[in-house]
Structures are given as structure tokens and as C-alpha cells.
Prior knowledge:
This protein is an alpha/beta fold. The chain contains eight helices and seven strands. Zinc ion is lined by residues 58, 60-61, 63, 69-70, 72-73.
Amino acid sequence: MEYFSNQIGTLIERLSSLPGIGRKSAQRLAFHIVNMPEDQVEALARSMTDAKKNIHYCRECQTLTDGDLCPICASPHRDHSLIMVVENPRDLAAYEKTGKFEGVYHVLHGAISPMLGIGPADIRLKELMTRLAGDVREVIVATNSSLEGETTAMYISKLIKPTGIKVTRIASGVPVGGDLENIDEVTLLRALEGRTEL
Ligand code: ZN
């Protein structure tokens, strides 16, 4: 038997399809939304569609941005010859939160996973190689310490080695399989400082 009207049911279903939102949370959110003032609901919906419409990949580092370049790539205060490679924008945010990294980033939007059929061409590696034609002194591979992250790190190292550019890997103080975004700042900084050449 259906407890809820069709429209509430659809709203709950849509919300529960989002990552990290279970059925219970989706219900709680749905009831909250229907009790919100109409203008607030419209503003929420608009911010979602606006973000979807206007946000794209940064021309340089491939992170999400609404400009041509993200604020980090556009900044003259960052060291553009030092590139940290991360799997996703959340990992970039985790390192940015430490406030200690002065280089720039490259966001792969995934990791190589033969199991899931994700190959080198499915992540933003070509864009990374294009950037290396510029003035780059070091590439720090900060992919996760999962099997996919390690596979990707090895692949990147093999790809970059012939160019003569220094390739380093963050120290494995990061728990195996740990998502970078869930790791505290001290551990992240230790991993960065203890990086070793690949
Ligand atoms: Zn950028």
C-alpha cells in the first residue's frame, strides 16, 4: 500500500538516488521541503539548475568552476610549476583546507579501474600531459591509496618519466582505501611532506 501521494513519493525517490541519502533521510528532506516557504524551495531548485548549467571543467586543472579558469589556476600567487594530481574536486578541497599547498592541481575525475572498465582514456590524463609541455618542475601524485589509486599512480609515473619531470607520490600515511577527503589535515600534510620520488 502507498502511504504517500505520488508527488511526495517521486520526490523521496529522487532524493534517495543521491549519494549518501538513504530512504529515511530522503523522507525527512522531502517533508522538510514541502513545509518550506515556496520562495525558498524555488531558490533551492534554481541554485541546482544554475550550478548544473554554468559549472564546467577549468581549462587548466579540470576542476569544477564557473569561470574559464578556476580561482587557483588564475592566481599569480600559486606555484604553477608544481602540480598535484588528485582523483576528484573533493580531494582538491581537502588539500586546500590545509592552506599549506602552494602549487596547483590537476583533477582526473576518477581513477583507472580495469575491474570497472575504466581505462586511462576515461580520466583526464590527456589534459595533464598537455600541461606538462609548459614549465613544470614536479608532479605530485596524490591519488587515493586504493587499488585504483595505486594503479593510476603507477600509470602516471610511467607516462611522465620519459619527459624528465620529477614525479613523486604522497607518503602512505594515508589509510589504505581511505578517501582523501575523510583524512584529517595533519595526516594530509604529513603525507605531502613525506612524498617520495616514483
Ligand atoms: Zn583550475
